[in-house]
Amino acid sequence: TLAELAGALAGSAAGEWHAAPLLADGSTAGETSDVVNPADHRDLVGRVTEIRAEDAERIVGMAADSVAAWAATAPAERAACLDRAADLMEARIEPLMGIIMREAGKSAANAIGEVREAVDFLRYYAEQARRTLGPSHLPLGPIVCISPWNFPLAIFTGQVAAALVAGNAVLAKPAEETPIIAHESVKILHEAGVPAGALQFVPGAGRVGAALVDASKTAGVMFTGSTEAARLIQAQLAERLSESGKPIPLIAETGGQNGMIVDSSALAEQVVGDVIASAFDSAGQRCSALRVLCLQDDVADRTLAMLKGALKELTLGRTDSLNVDIGPVITAEARDGIIKHIERMRELGNKVEQLPLPAGTENGTFVPPTIIELKTLSDLKREVFGPVLHVIRFRRADLDRLIDDINASGYGLTFGLHTRLDETIAHVVSR
Asked: What does the alpha-carbon distance between residue 10 and residue 319 come to, in Å, rounded to a whole number?
């Protein structure tokens, strides 16, 4: 029941959470700082002790020393470790949800989805190992996994699980904003049978990640985050070869300018539901979130009116309240950057509409859900990672020009099309 869930979340909030390093030699030296709720900075979620960047070489060396023993573990047993971890996560969903809601500012629905996705990753990679890994498979060695704050359990766990089950030793560096939930994930994997040397938890800021990437024994990097940071890592790795004399692989997932085209045949009710979910869920802090809505001019006014009406039904606030739809953005720096973008759009003469922020949000880093009507896509210079939807109108005769503009804006992770015309689907997909 909701009452039972609320009680479990209250119990999670009462816990004393400390994300300390989990290293092969048991050392925990480093600076300790507070982790606060982005929805209310008066709410202390817990504390984190970050490793020292100068210790990265030694820590990666310990991972390298652990590779042989972990790789010698049968793939079926490595897979079984992931399955046991999945069982433990399912059994502890409420306290894990409670951390996610307070540390990352996620709603209850998104926190449930986060834990379920982490469980799915564990079971998926376990099954893939059973199906594909045999005696001829050789691991790369120590893998540095650098994960984002917007999916602090799911993507963190997915990266770690994939590298681990293939026989690699993992250095798991969470986003500096969300170390506590990542710490719980590593503790669960250790409890499930993964040795401490095969999986080390290395919290820290960007300089720690850079030092881990730069360590001489690092054999690969998995990264999810900004395109700018991925390029820096790519350049860093390109300066050297691995100890085996090969290029060091980088697996990176980054952001993009995601668009949706809506033509005059689309059902407005479906469009509005999809747009609200994609653009404003998680306060727009998803790499896959809708950033640019392209409305055919015949239906633009009606669709926008419905969209603005639906937006007014959403509730903003602290996400550890079960009735909240939209929470904060992750940091004051993120909030200030988004607000600066909105003001720039106003200065360019674009129409801006926003929901008012309700009482109780002044102690967190909230951005009001915002709709900006653009005159041209060229006004957008980069991805805006927050609850901001840009809208542009187009004439049917200009569809190809619109597609050209979208393609010219750089890579997106997602693209949407609302139409009931098969020929439009075929044409847009072909472009």
From this structure: 13
What six digits make up the tokens of 207? 């300089």
Are 304 and 165 found together in one domain? no
Range of the domain at 315: 259-430
Is 5 a residue whose pLDDT tops 80? no
Q: In the predicted model, is pLDDT for residue 1 greater than 70?
A: no
Q: Is the CB of residue 9 less than 8 Å from the CB of residue 101?
A: yes
pLDDT band for position 2 (cuts 50, 70, 90): low
311 and 426 part of one domain: yes
CATH of the domain at 367: 3.40.309.10
One domain, residues 199 and 286: no
Strands 169-173 and 199-201: parallel
Q: Supply φ then ψ for residue 254, to 5 degrees.
A: -125, -175
Which residues lie closer than 8 Å to 406 by C-beta, 6 or more apart? Answer: 257, 259, 292, 294, 377, 412, 415
Give the Cβ contact number of residue 376 at 10 Å: 10
**Domain edge (last residue) among 221, 253, 285:** 253
Query: How does DSSP classify residue 255?
Result: -
297 and 246 in one domain? no
Residues whose CB is less than 8 angstroms from the CB of residue 126 and which lie 6 or more positions away in sequence, other chains included: 79, 80, 82, 83, 86, 161, 165
73 neighbors 177 (Cβ within 8 angstroms): no
> Which is nearest to 298 in space by CA: 379, 157, 228, 398?
398
Q: How far apart are the C-alpha atoms of 199 and 263, rounded to whole Å? A: 50
Quote the CA–CA distance of 306 and 32 in Å, as a whole number.
Answer: 48
Are 240 and 267 in the same domain? Answer: no
Q: Are 89 and 97 in contact (CB under 8 A)?
A: no
pLDDT greater than 90 at residue 198? yes
Of 186, 221, 253, at which residue does a domain stop? Answer: 253
Q: Which residues are catalytic?
A: 253, 287
Model confidence, pTM: 0.94
Task: Identify the three-state secondary structure at position 296.
Answer: strand
Q: Mean pLDDT across the stretch 239-259?
A: 90
